[in-house]
Amino acid sequence: MALTFTDLVEVDLDKLGTAVSDWKKTVDRLKTSAENAHKGMQAKSDSAQWAGVNATVTREFIAKTAKEVSDLHAEANSIYQVLADGHPELVSLQKQVKDAAGKDASALGVRVNDIGDGKVVCIFPHIRGDTDERTQEQLDAKRELENRINRILSHAAEIDASVARALRMSHGDDAHNAGHSTYESLNDAQAERALELARKGDKMSDAELQEFNRLMRFNSREKDGEFATEFYKGLGGPEKTLEFYAEMSIDGTDPDASKVRLNAMKDLQQNMGFALANATDPDTKSHLPASWGDEFRRLGTQQIGWEKGQWNKPYGYQVLGGLLRYGNYDPRFLDPIAEHVTQLHKKDPYFFLNNKAMGQEDIYGFNPSGRMGSGNDPLNSVLEALGHSPEASEKFFTQSPTAYNEDGTKKGGSPGFTSYLDLFTDKDFDWTVDTNDTNILADEDKTKNALTFGPEALGHALESATTGRPYDDDTGDAIKHSAAQAQLVNDIVNKFGENPELIRHNENGDLDDAESGPLYGLRGSLGDITAEYMGDFQRAMYKEDPSSDLFPTFGEAAGLDPGHAARFLGEVGQDPDAYSAITSAQQAYTTEVVDHVINGGSDSTASLDGRVGNAVAPGSAIAGIMSDARANAIYEYHTASDTEFNEAAADKQKWVDRILGMGIEKVGERIPIAGAPLEWASEDIQESIMKSIEKDTATEAEQEAGEKYTEGRSAAVDSAEAAVRNALLNNQHINSDTADDLRRAARTAAGISHTDGAQWNSESDSK
Question: Higher-confidence residue: 245 or 50?
């Protein structure tokens, strides 16, 4: 019977706490008894000069009794350790579920209903006179709360089941005989059960696979790494790990596998990936030896089989890649593998793909998630791994490459290139079609789509390297940019500013001499990088002095070249997601700069209206580049529509929050928008951004008549005025006439600078 919501809320865990205390006393007393038994009667028995029956029966009885007392102590200690670990976890989960079902549900206006079987539903109760109409935001919040409570219940159920199972194993089936399974922690018991299930391999039932996933999900990321390390050691080593994962992933992605099985295998892939990242981190209390990394590299080019007489055997890296796609890996483990795989790909791009099974449907193989390929090409997998591992990706792209032999051992000397950024952005670098679809060559659209998987993964890796966060972490705080990260951004902007054709996308080939570049798939990530480094890009627009504090960078400055930055923005901004990220960050950043000018205080003798105009100019120039880029994408390259640009904007709230979170820094102190709560400012700015993006459009006739920037220019003017208006809300010392002058100055400067930006981009397009 499943643990229910009511069970968890109402159970008195103080009684369990008392039981833990009682068992601790029992353990201490039995320890004393066991020591006395061994040092007392056992020692005397061993030293006595027994004769006759006493020499056998009595001595054996005493020895057996002493052992039984020791076994009782071991059993009691096992029970205590399991209860002591389980109690605080259940207390924490009970508090979480009470808070969620109490204050969180109340704030949202929903009621939590227990529907049994360890599940709840959240509902908006009907109120007389209420239309019962809910906003999408309310519905999303309700769904998030419901899912959160159900995750807590699932976690509590897993602990409850693990504790109960460990107690049964510790006690055994013989009431007259102590000394059965013993555990030093609840983790020991959980790892033992996970391994017991893993040994069944693909013979695990769906219910057993769900149990395995629960054990892995709730224990694989523990900070001390104990569970993850015990689990992987218990599998038997790197080769056994690959055999187990290969067997399971192929079972779950088989054409005959049920949807339930495939979904469970997606969970297994993630759970085992997070566990491997935890277990291979040398800084965790418990971790695998460094030799695991060496062995994985050796096995990378070796064929792995898991069935007797197996014909089609994947290479180790094809299997390992599925696990590496999930988890934040330590650079000491991941970077040598990523370097080895990249160098193997450079030597022979089809070494791994030539080994994939033929004649299959488009199934996902060693990448059950199905995201960005089947997993046959491990290059895509290690780039995704770098995308989730910021420290590893930063070192991978900023430090000198290490050469590796084919067997994964260090080679010494140079691998034939000086940086991985240069290698991947070489126009002749071979990106492969990583799919199992048998019709891939006959379907041009599928081929084009599959060819973007590698560049997309490269974008994720670069995003991780430059921001210090996993690329898909939408909630993490901004992290100050290091000198190495800032220099990498400088290199990226120079690379694509000098060679924009690498990331150009000409959907239908309508423009002569404008073929799609091989790397247009990473433009979304380049947009996120631009948003993260908005201060650096605004500095570059009008060549701001590096010593200026009007447009602060977040950490070390990237020192961008203005020409390269403008061309870079013009090409990247043609992607709807990139356009929205850049526009959102630009307006949020400009709002803070304007607020700083009006409310931050200054010793400048220049007029305030002039300083406000200067404050909005760089952002407006970027807005002009974005307007031109958007028009080009829609009417010249035919890669997107106005609808796609508008819809992409709804997902970029994170950049407003993140830019506001960075704050304006001066003399080492953060000065947020004066007197304004972050949430209020964020909502106000986001509303302004949505209006601006929806307005930044042009018809085909306007495009042909050269009037395509009219609405975009108007949107930039409105945005600049909104930034001033927000700042004035927090300043009661500026009279209405001065306020009018400041708004006017912002509008004028924004209009001029928007035209500048659009013109810069048009001129670069024509070159």
Answer: 245
